[in-house]
Design a protein that fits this description.
CATH architecture: 3-Layer(aba) Sandwich
Domain ABC transporter: 15-248
CATH class: Alpha Beta
Largest sheet: 6 strands, mixed
Order of helices and strands: EEEHEEHEHHHEHEHEEH
Distance between the termini: 47 Å
Structural class: alpha/beta
Keywords: ATP-binding, Nucleotide-binding, Transport
Strand order of the largest sheet: 6-7-8-3-9-10
CATH superfamily: P-loop containing nucleotide triphosphate hydrolases
Protein name: ABC transporter ATP-binding protein
InterPro entries: AAA+_ATPase (IPR003593), ABC_transporter-like_ATP-bd (IPR003439), ABC_transporter-like_CS (IPR017871), ABC_transpr_LolD-like (IPR015854), MacB-like_ATP-bd (IPR017911), P-loop_NTPase (IPR027417)
Number of domains: 1
GO molecular function, one term: ATP binding
Helix content: 25-40%
Number of strands: 10
CATH topology: Rossmann fold
Radius of gyration: 18 Å
Bound molecules: adenosine-5'-diphosphate, magnesium ion
Length: 250
């Protein structure tokens, strides 16, 4: 905590997105997006299929380069970075989890979690790996391979791996999309807890109104543009808004 900040100071957002455009040929996947993700907040991104949700996350996480516009993470503009610097920033400051977990099958849970530290050329301190696994409730599974873990447990390992470097922001693209309802709720409760307990800034794409209701804010995308948002949303409010968006004429 910065105790020198005055009460009137508004903290800079962890992620700042301005006039973001990403065109694929004639398709405008993102068509002018302005968004801020404040520190310690949990945001859900929703919208019809093809509305640009994944593209937004990929651009915000430095996995894709926008056609125009800017993304800043932790005050650092991504556009000006060389590939090498961008890779380093992604590795150190940005966590990403995918629907399909993307764990390496031949490595144990602990080895998967240690991977980002190894890639950064650090010798992974065993305590950091153990702590990361403990934070997701898997302290007793360190030696298990992905095939020996349930889907929910695999996603928890992926979360521990994404968080082991203590990134400024965690992105998830449908992180509960491959999980059954009960397991999915467990992972969402964990994401919520990490935000509340550790101040993890989290941005999650989902198509599930119940998943979105775990967030502080839901941002709706339509045709590559922000079409509105809800604060402290209930699942019913989100479902009603989504039904409206999906019925909207093209
Ligand atoms: N690599 C790509 N090449 C061409 N078009 C793409 C590519 N990625 C996404 N698109 C297009 O951009 C639009 C937005 O895609 P996406 O961000 O994946 O949407 P969502 O995640 O909301 O379903 C879609 O029309 C999609 O077909
Ligand atoms: Mg998508």
């Amino acid at each position: 905590m910065d105790t020198t900040a005055t009460h009137t100071t508004t903290a800079a957002p962890v992620v700042r997105i301005r006039s973001l455009r990403r065109h694929y040929g004639t398709v405008a996947a993102l068509d002018g997006v302005d968004l801020d993700f404040a520190a310690g907040t949990f945001t859900a991104v929703m919208g019809p299929s093809g509305s640009g949700k994944s593209t937004l996350l990929q651009c915000a996480a430095g996995l894709d380069r926008p056609t125009s516009g800017t993304v800043a993470v932790d005050g650092i503009g991504l556009a000006g970075l060389s590939e090498r610097r961008l890779t380093l920033l992604r590795r150190e400051r940005i966590g990403f989890v995918f629907q399909s977990f993307n764990l390496l099958p031949s490595l144990t849970a602990a080895q998967n979690v240690a991977l980002p530290l190894r890639l950064a050329g650090r010798r992974p301190p065993r305590t950091a790996v153990r702590e990361a696994l403990a934070r997701v409730g898997l302290a007793d599974r360190a030696g298990h391979r992905p095939s020996e873990l349930s889907g929910g447990q695999q996603q928890r390992v992926a979360l521990a791996r994404a968080l082991v470097t203590r990134p400024a922001v965690l992105f998830g693209d449908e992180p509960t999309g491959a999980l059954d309802t009960v397991t999915s709720r467990g992972v969402l409760a964990l994401l919520r807890e990490l935000v509340d307990r550790e101040g993890r800034t989290t941005v999650m794409v989902t198509h599930d109104p119940v998943a979105a209701s775990y967030a502080d804010r839901v941002v709706f995308l339509v045709d590559g543009r922000v079409s509105g948002e809800l604060r402290s949303p209930s699942a019913d409010e989100v479902a009603a808004r989504m039904a409206g968006l999906e019925k909207a004429p093209c």
